[in-house]
Amino acid sequence: MDLMTSRDRRLYGWCIAALITNMGIIVTGAVVRLTGSGLGCNTWPHCTAGTFTPHEEMGIHSYVEFGNRLLTFVLVAVAIGLLVRCYRVHVTAQLMALAWINLVSIALQAVIGGISVLLELNPFVVALHLLLSVAIILVDVKMIWLAGPHSSEAVDGLTMGLVRATVATMCVVMWLGTVVTGSGPNAGDSGSARTGFDIQTVARLHGISVWITVALTIACLAIATTRGLAMMRRWSIVLMAVEVYQAIVGYSQYFTHLSPWLVIWHMVGVALSAAAVGALWCSVRPTPSPVLNRKS
Q1: 135-166: per-residue pLDDT in tens?
Q2: Runs of H (alpha helix) within the chain
Q3: Secondary structure (3-state) at 224
Q4: Is 200 helix (H, G, I), strand (E, B) or coil?
Q5: Are strands 284-286 and 153-155 parallel, antiparallel or unpaired?
Q6: Which residue, 34, 61, 36, is CA-closest to 47?
Q7: Contacts with 36 (C-beta within 8 Å, 6 or more apart), sequence order
Q8: Residue among 15, 29, 30, 17 nearest 258 (CA)
């Protein structure tokens, strides 16, 4: 039986498009930073004083940054299309709320990006810019689960807590990753400020958080296997595969002193990690507490 027969295929397609575009802009944002194009458009919302578009005298960096800004309109268009479809098919209140959160977060993301330019790529603002993208990806994965042919498995409190801990530590990994980036050489512009933290120290802290997350993922896989939780097992394996990929790229970055092109592949891994850990989270749900029947 086709699991989509009772669901709306177009809505599901819009949810997938939202996820793909929001993952994509993480990668294009990395290209902007690693090509030194972060201030290619030196103000916001204009590209430069008096004009919204770059001109030839501004150089190639302005076109790279402007191209990334244009992608925001693609994200907005997809978010609006998704929201319109939600109203047309009368979705649940939860899915409608998530669709609105997706749209509003993209608009907020554009504002934070603009502020980062006005503050000449302050590393803490740039970090917030990335972390909001990660949060949007988690929202998009949840929408896919609600709109598509996906199910979740009821689990006990210990298992649910383990999955939530894995999600939380993954968020810490990504936050510490932004600290590493903000302390390293790939600032997005040669004149941009850095955090001032010792990059060796923050890189080691980042590495420790990664291994804690890997250990939790292995625990998720072990519990899912022993308890016959097929969905949880599947997404634990996917997350583990992404973590292995990220470890290979991450340590290669470390030993090659943050090679820009390796950083781009690492950002691909960030997007994949957010989606995979979101799917693991969505694959389980708490077992409802039993309702005790009381005699009146």
Answers
A1: 999 999 999 999 998 989 999 999 999 999 99
A2: 9-34, 60-89, 93-118, 123-147, 157-183, 199-226, 230-255, 260-282
A3: helix
A4: helix
A5: parallel
A6: 61
A7: 61, 188, 189, 190
A8: 30
CA dihedral over 283, 284, 285, 288, signed as positive or negative: positive
Domain ranges of the chain: 1-150, 151-288
- Supply the pLDDT for residue 295: 46
pTM to 2 decimals?
A: 0.90
Copy the structure tokens of residue 290. Answer: 């039993």
Q: Provide φ and ψ at 286, rounded to 5°.
A: -65, 145
Indicate the angle between helix axes 260-282 and 123-147, nearest 10 degrees: 40
In contact, 53 and 41? CB cutoff 8 Å: no
**What average pLDDT does this structure show over 9-29?**
95
Give φ, ψ of 193 to 5 degrees. -75, 160
78 closest CA partner among 26, 136, 18: 18
H or E segment and range at residue 64: helix 60-89
Tokens of 125: 């603002």
Alpha carbon distance 120, 98 (integer Å):
32
Please state, in angstroms and rounded to a whole number, the distance separating the CA atoms of residues 281 and 162: 10
Contact 76, 82 (CB under 8 A): no
Question: What's the confidence (pLDDT) of residue 188?
Answer: 61
3-state secondary structure of 147: helix
